[in-house]
Amino acid sequence: NKASIGVTGLAVMGRNLARNLARHGHTVALHNRSTERTRDLVERFGSEGTFLPTSSAREFVDALERPRQIVIMVKAGEPTDAVIEEFAPLLEPGDVLVDAGNAHFADTRRREAALRERGLHFVGTGVSGGEEGALHGPSIMPGGSKESYASLGPLFEDIAAKVDGTPCCTHVGPDGAGHFVKMVHNGIEYSDMQLIAESFDLLRGALGYEPAQIADVFRTWNTGRLDSYLIEITAEVLAHTDAETGRPFVDVVADQAEQKGTGRWTVQIGLDLGIPITGIAEATFARSLSGHTGLRAAAEGLAGPRRAPLSGAAAERFADDVERALYASKVVAYAQGFNQIQAGSAEYGWNVDLGAVASIWRGGCIIRAKFLDDIRAAYEAEPALPTLLTSGDFRKAVEDAQDSWRSVISTAVRLGIPTPGFSTALAYYDGLRAERLPAALVQGQRDYFGAHTYRRVDRAGTFHTEWATEGRPEHPA
Ligand code: NDP
């Protein structure tokens, strides 16, 4: 009796993924660099299914049915390369190595190409949902070859989250496609979290609400179109009281947001591909700004407007306005993220199905939301949709929200409440729909100082103005 799959790297994620597989009736071979983790898993959870614990790479590989399927769940970066080098020499052509850690997609492309030369399938897989997701059903985003998905897919679909019976797992595309999509997922997650945080700050700053009251507002929103995991947990965090001080939990937490790097990758790749993912970028920079304690201390006392909370009709309307602004900004953030996936897919020839991506994000992952079903429907109706903003229902929702959106941002500006996420989302919307952009002037400036040339609206070709002569006002053209 051999195992249909093996997991190496049994920290929180690997352990829970292995348990999830075993709970679904699959025999799982176990391996970890230090054997204590393997022993611990079997001692505590051995009764949940059939595990084959092993204490060496050789023993692990021998415990697996052929073609072997090995899920690597170790610290991303060099440890992943070390583990690949440990196992690859023991494997045979057709075996499948899966990296389910948070690898950079470029590393995945490199590893896939190298292992393909050696006859092995290498599958970079995004896994989202944290440790709870890994145990109860994550969203799984595998890349790699079609052949590898034929054997791996059924196992992964079995343990993935389900929405309306559909597994939150699909073959995203070749080589690094899975990790790329996971990266953008995390970027969107940054953006979504920032927008929700700004909504909280606005409700507090403009209405003077307490965190517990704001928790109620979020709970109400969570019954409507904003229904999502992130809104749900936000309400819980805001309602939480610090046991030690009796103060709202959110007021005793240091206001410096940390990051592990996937948001930064998303922004870097957005720049490389030339895709304006401004919502993700602002969210990432907002975390950086929060962390610059020295800079913030130096800026303390810089003058701002006098803050008087809203009152009367404006106050009554405000929470609804924020809901609309949040929704519209969120549509922009997702529109940008999906455009980035579209661009990555074109650049690397992945042929990613955006509707399928939206579908597997509906459950299991951190950005799971009702809203993603609408995105799925939009891309299913029009796979080459240029932007979600022009798709039927989204278009109408954002157009209907725009007065509120503008009013909320005006209020924020007037009260001096920073809303980088809301503001950049609206600027993107206005930028896209503008008939003429001042980019024309930028082209003129570039031509003036650098002879970079420009194109004209009235005829084809490339033009340059001799600014030293033709450009002078006393020298009409
Ligand atoms: P960690 O990232 O903390 O990694 C610990 C595991 O890596 C241990 O099993 C450890 O073995 C092993 N390891 C580290 N270095 C080496 C090495 N040089 N050779 C062999 N094994 C090594 O574990 P997590 O479970 O938190 O995450 C695993 C992966 O999943 C990471 O890539 C992470 O980014 C990703 N991920 C994590 C999520 C989360 O919510 N935590 C969510 C989604 C993805 P040992 O016990 O011997 O030290």
Automatic annotation (TrEMBL):
<feature type="binding site" description="in other chain">
    <location>
        <position position="260"/>
    </location>
    <ligand>
        <name>substrate</name>
    </ligand>
</feature>
<feature type="active site" description="Proton acceptor">
    <location>
        <position position="182"/>
    </location>
</feature>
<dbReference type="InterPro" id="IPR006183">
    <property type="entry name" value="Pgluconate_DH"/>
</dbReference>
<dbReference type="InterPro" id="IPR006184">
    <property type="entry name" value="6PGdom_BS"/>
</dbReference>
<feature type="binding site">
    <location>
        <begin position="74"/>
        <end position="76"/>
    </location>
    <ligand>
        <name>NADP(+)</name>
    </ligand>
</feature>
<feature type="binding site" description="in other chain">
    <location>
        <begin position="185"/>
        <end position="186"/>
    </location>
    <ligand>
        <name>substrate</name>
    </ligand>
</feature>
<dbReference type="InterPro" id="IPR006115">
    <property type="entry name" value="6PGDH_NADP-bd"/>
</dbReference>
<feature type="domain" description="6-phosphogluconate dehydrogenase C-terminal">
    <location>
        <begin position="178"/>
        <end position="468"/>
    </location>
</feature>
<dbReference type="GO" id="GO:0050661">
    <property type="term" value="F:NADP binding"/>
</dbReference>
<keyword id="KW-0521">NADP</keyword>
<feature type="binding site">
    <location>
        <position position="452"/>
    </location>
    <ligand>
        <name>substrate</name>
    </ligand>
</feature>
<feature type="binding site" description="in other chain">
    <location>
        <position position="102"/>
    </location>
    <ligand>
        <name>substrate</name>
    </ligand>
</feature>
<feature type="binding site">
    <location>
        <position position="446"/>
    </location>
    <ligand>
        <name>substrate</name>
    </ligand>
</feature>
<feature type="active site" description="Proton donor">
    <location>
        <position position="189"/>
    </location>
</feature>
<comment type="pathway">
    <text>Carbohydrate degradation; pentose phosphate pathway; D-ribulose 5-phosphate from D-glucose 6-phosphate (oxidative stage): step 3/3.</text>
</comment>
<feature type="binding site">
    <location>
        <begin position="32"/>
        <end position="34"/>
    </location>
    <ligand>
        <name>NADP(+)</name>
    </ligand>
</feature>
<dbReference type="GO" id="GO:0006098">
    <property type="term" value="P:pentose-phosphate shunt"/>
</dbReference>
<dbReference type="Pfam" id="PF03446">
    <property type="entry name" value="NAD_binding_2"/>
</dbReference>
<comment type="similarity">
    <text>Belongs to the 6-phosphogluconate dehydrogenase family.</text>
</comment>
<comment type="function">
    <text>Catalyzes the oxidative decarboxylation of 6-phosphogluconate to ribulose 5-phosphate and CO(2), with concomitant reduction of NADP to NADPH.</text>
</comment>
<feature type="binding site" description="in other chain">
    <location>
        <begin position="128"/>
        <end position="130"/>
    </location>
    <ligand>
        <name>substrate</name>
    </ligand>
</feature>
<comment type="subunit">
    <text>Homodimer.</text>
</comment>
<dbReference type="GO" id="GO:0004616">
    <property type="term" value="F:phosphogluconate dehydrogenase (decarboxylating) activity"/>
</dbReference>
<keyword id="KW-0560">Oxidoreductase</keyword>
<dbReference type="InterPro" id="IPR036291">
    <property type="entry name" value="NAD(P)-bd_dom_sf"/>
</dbReference>
<dbReference type="Pfam" id="PF00393">
    <property type="entry name" value="6PGD"/>
</dbReference>
<feature type="binding site" description="in other chain">
    <location>
        <position position="287"/>
    </location>
    <ligand>
        <name>substrate</name>
    </ligand>
</feature>
<dbReference type="InterPro" id="IPR008927">
    <property type="entry name" value="6-PGluconate_DH-like_C_sf"/>
</dbReference>
<dbReference type="InterPro" id="IPR006114">
    <property type="entry name" value="6PGDH_C"/>
</dbReference>
<feature type="binding site">
    <location>
        <position position="102"/>
    </location>
    <ligand>
        <name>NADP(+)</name>
    </ligand>
</feature>
<keyword id="KW-0570">Pentose shunt</keyword>
<dbReference type="InterPro" id="IPR006113">
    <property type="entry name" value="6PGDH_Gnd/GntZ"/>
</dbReference>
<feature type="binding site" description="in other chain">
    <location>
        <position position="190"/>
    </location>
    <ligand>
        <name>substrate</name>
    </ligand>
</feature>
<protein>
    <recommendedName>
        <fullName>6-phosphogluconate dehydrogenase, decarboxylating</fullName>
        <ecNumber>1.1.1.44</ecNumber>
    </recommendedName>
</protein>
<feature type="binding site">
    <location>
        <begin position="9"/>
        <end position="14"/>
    </location>
    <ligand>
        <name>NADP(+)</name>
    </ligand>
</feature>
<dbReference type="GO" id="GO:0019521">
    <property type="term" value="P:D-gluconate metabolic process"/>
</dbReference>
<dbReference type="InterPro" id="IPR013328">
    <property type="entry name" value="6PGD_dom2"/>
</dbReference>
<keyword id="KW-0311">Gluconate utilization</keyword>
